[in-house]
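[Meeting: bench + compute handoff]

Bench side (C.D.) handed over the final construct sequence. Compute side (W.E.) agreed to return the predicted structure before the next meeting so the bench team could plan truncations. Sequence as handed over:
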Amino acid sequence: MIDLASTHHHGRPIDTTFDLGDKAIRLLAQARDPFPIEVALAFSDWAHQLRAALDAILYQLAVKDSGQNPPPGESRLQYPLATNRAAFDREARRRLKHLSTVSIAAIERTQPYNIPTKEHGHALWWLHEVARIDRHRLAHEFAWNVRGVQLDLRGLAGAQVDDCDHTLTYVTHKQKTWLATITPPPGAHPQLGSSVAVVTWPEIPRWHSAAVPSYRQYGLTDRMTNVEELIHRMAQYFAERAGS
């Protein structure tokens, strides 16, 4: 996914411009092109495969508990991910009624509401959410997340720089995005050779901006890796419980 984005943009995904005002200079950025659709499709494949892995874990638990393959109620089996205990209990009555109470209790312990940050800080809930949105609505829209701005402002020593929130600023091809405002001291003027370097990373704003700050601080690929590692650990845990 990252390779697709990097190849498409040839290492120069965004352009920056200085907007010279009477008293201040605004730094603006805009992506050269939209992300290629192949990036969204690659992410879609990732999300659906990982969400399906949760259902595969549940299916094997149902086989183990019932001693039948296919297990009873197989058409209703779906790994539940609930935001509160009442919602989980409703899902358990619909989808888990043929599992043992021990298995249901183990599944309940993995639910997003069991951690302090609740669902917006829980990797499994976000996997479920991004897969659901992609499946029922539109492919996720990618943007360049600004992770840092480095300015080399010649002739502007002592200038005041007010910059953007480097965590929640996204640059797209649709319009120019404000990155910083530079207020020169009296009598100072920019000189030729001033430059800017913007550190960016592909991101899905819908996922990133709604996450809790402690989860949001990680970039997209780090969060994706976290999801993969969590599901791998869950598969190992439930396999040990099933004795296989």
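W.E. noted at the follow-up: The chain has eight helices and seven strands. C.D. will use this when planning the next construct.
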